[in-house]
Automatic annotation (TrEMBL), chain B:
Lineage per the UniProt record: Bacteria, Bacillati, Bacillota, Bacilli, Lactobacillales
Protein's organism: Levilactobacillus fujinensis
Transmembrane region(s): 20-45, 65-85, 106-131, 151-175, 187-205, 227-249
Assigned keywords, A-Z: Membrane, Transmembrane, Transmembrane helix
Protein name: ABC transporter permease
Keyword set includes Membrane: yes
Amino acid sequence: MTTIMSEDVLTITNVSKRFGNFQALDDVSLTVKSGDIYGLLGENGAGKTTLMRLITGLSFLKQGKIVLLGEQSGHYQQALRRTGAIIENPTAFPELTVNQNLKLCAIQHGISEPNLLADVLDFVGLTAKQSTKASHLSLGQRQRLGLALATLPRPDFLILDEPINGLDPNGIIEFRKLIKQLNEERHTTILISSHILSELYQVSNRFGILHRGRLIKQVTKSELDAANQSGLEITVDQVAVAGQVLDHEVAGDFEILDEHHLIIRHSSLSAAKINQLLVQGGVSVNQIVQREGSLEEYYTSLVAREDQHHV
Amino acid sequence: MFNQIKADSYRQLHTRGSYIILALTVLLSVLITAFESTGGIMINADTMQEFEGSRWSVMTGLKSATLSSTMLLYIDIALFVIVIGQEFSKKTYKNTLISGISRIGFILGKFVTMLLDILFLTLIFYGVVILTSLLAGRDGGASLMSLVRTLGLMTVTIGFFISVIFSIGVIVLVLANSVVTATICMALWPILIAILSNFTSWRWLRYINFTGVAQQITLGTLKIDALWPYIGVSFGVLILTIVGSALIIQRKEL
């Protein structure tokens, strides 16, 4: 795997796409940085898939500019070799087994590492199904096979279009873990779209919101949480002292809300540890509450504002 | 492109359909030779009678197999479906194209795979003719050298011209995104040319009667020296369809 040292993995500049009278994308510009899990949100028909198809060259780019891993769309030399993707539905040859489909993919990419297939099968949890024909797999297993095919060449950048569609709750949890693992252990930058906002919130660190073909907002998770006032809300007797303790212990990003309340947005410490630190610092802690930010609320209000603006 | 060809070969080796095609080719070859039967599009009754009435040798078997080679085209169409048709019907081309292969590399890779397959199957087709003839105790009908030369010439000629029809199938597939339309087009090509030739006086039709060239050589109505215009037209069609398919696929919504 090539480690990407440059900041931007994907830069999309003023991209538009029209199908007949339908404006699928309208002057979209966004950037995915190395290490991101970039969540692309939007209603059906917002342009998420169209954008992903343009990035991978499955759709012809007429207007705008796309730079993927340092190469411009239409002139990709190595960029696609360093990219894995599942666009729309995962596809595989139905009459071939899981293992044969992976072997085929390895040949296509010129990969001959002996243990790679077994590693990938293990990673996506399909070892037990390696001799099963792709046509006999369940929807969740097909999604896993799609992920295995997309990650087999150890890509630097992974594009996943609605990967959790049709998965049962267990499948969604497993898939979420896999995506996190890919990002944290293999340092794979990921662009993922979904209309299940709660899931996207859990995996992504940056978000782009598409609405009617336009990118109406790019926001980081911290900014989103700040806008939603989400985090660990602590009620104390002396907020100034509590602030000093948290500052000193590098407990994370926090904000003093009023004379008895403060909110920690991101912390590597558990609520119990924070409580212990504050008590040891002479602060009386009355309450610690985890306040969840809702991407859904944020998205809904943003879209409503956008619609109102256009009316 | 080479990786693509290797991947397609691997897939064919693990596809049951490939072995069915091979079995059908062998069966056709055995039936033609064992039952001394001749038949094909644009082969008239006189020619068939001439072959069926004569004493069969290995050489007669080879010639008769050539006259029946349109049947081989229909078997080979299944190969087209496996190698490229399925990529479009199952949309697996998305995986292939995202792997970083260029559009021209994709189309050329598919074409080369099909050409190699057709040459292999045609060689098997003629090989089985020789084997069946020998098992039936027939004499050679010509020197060993002449038999080998005929085998080589017919394999290359039939393989090449069937591949030209396949290249037309590829561009139709890419344009229409329909395996059915592409296969119908390939299946109807020799029939349509035959019908048009019968009802019109368009002499240029003979240059695009791709399945008829080997038959004309067999019947002695076309000398090897006069083959060049046919080869030229076929190469022209190949270049147009391969480059055209690559350009279309580049601009197409896949």
